[in-house]
Amino acid sequence: MGKSLAEYADWLAGRDLIWPAPPVPVPAKATPFLKPLPEVRAVLWNVYGTLLNIADGELLHLVDDPLRMEVALDKTVHEFNMWNSMYRKPGAPWELMFQQYQPLVTDLRLTGKVRRGETAEIDSAHLWKILVERLLQKKYTWDHALYGELDEYCQKIAWFFHRALQGCGAAEGAAEALEGLADRRVVQGLVGAGQCFTLTELRGHLEQGEGLQRRPLPLAPGCVSFSYELGAAPPTERLFTPVLETLGNLGIEPGEVLYVSSRLMADLAPAKRLGLRTALFAGDKTSLRATGTQVRDPELQPDRILTALNQIHQ
Fold first, then answer.
1. Most CB atoms within 10 A, among 12, 264, 285, 307?
2. How open is the CA angle 305-309-311, to the nearest 5 degrees?
3. How far apart are CA 298 and CA 220, in angstroms?
């Protein structure tokens, strides 16, 4: 049995590897709106762009900068010894991998099974599983004792590639916000764009940043819903369904739930339609996805606007 994803992340952190630096937040032109919200019994968070600062403002499979794609794919090909099992054509190893990776991303987006009006979400580990299965045709092998079987192995490749592609770090005040709500016995969960490694990434960056000090994330069982599991990317109301069912079993109604995200149309709009209260996090210009017109629209207008995560306690 190989290392778990969390154990692998710890092992990776102990190596002298160079990763892209987390982005420095750029203040957005926003004024906090902190009207009291009585009877909030649960807070749901979006991860990327809210609890975590991430390059590009959101989790991506492809970035526009060719150099970043080159570096991330080159590191991945060499880290997992893929080159010897790749079909040899003219070009650098990363270029040959990119020639498979890019069209596969497009194909998975087009062939994903989603409902009308939804966009397919790519499961990054599944994407890498397809690429590894192609390598297996040329007798590709890996260290099963370290990485585990195929599905576990591809989760670790997905995690490594993402780390190499997009700099990421804890948002200022993220740990304080989570712990403060936990101390007040507010139920917490995560809903939004995410992959198999998102919880591991969140925990790791919070520990490196303000420090949860190896304490479990204060998340209620059954209150985490990520897009890769559903197969549909935000916006979709279906992402909230399992968490709202869990909260309902705890006697918490949608109107007693506050959802926090930096993306108004993708995240807050479907939450509002479901009857949740919403808070727009406008603490970073790069991740903020909202216009003044949208914020003023009565059908979209968030209940609160936060420019710092510690304002969640006000």
1. 264
2. 65
3. 31
In angstroms, what CA-CA distances link 289 with 94, 133, 134, 251?
32, 37, 38, 32
Task: List, as own/partner pairs, every contact residues 135-138 make where C-beta atoms lie below 8 angstroms and the sequence separation is at least 24, other chains included.
Answer: 135/82, 135/85, 135/86, 136/85, 138/84, 138/85, 138/86, 138/87
**Element counts in the chain: helices (H) and strands (E):** 12, 10
User: Which DSSP string corresponds to 124-191?
Assistant: HHHHHHHHHHHHHTTT----HHHH-SHHHHHHHHHHHHHHHHS-EEEPTTHHHHHHHHHHTT-EEEEE
Q: How far is it, in rounded angstroms, from Cα 12 to Cα 24?
A: 23
pTM: 0.95
Nearest-angstrom CA–CA distance, 291 and 307: 15
Distance between CA atoms of residues 29 and 227, nearest Å = 29
Angle at 167 between CA 165 and CA 170, to 5 degrees: 145
Each residue's pLDDT tens digit, 198-257? 999 999 999 865 545 556 899 999 999 999 999 999 999 999 999 999 999 999 999 999
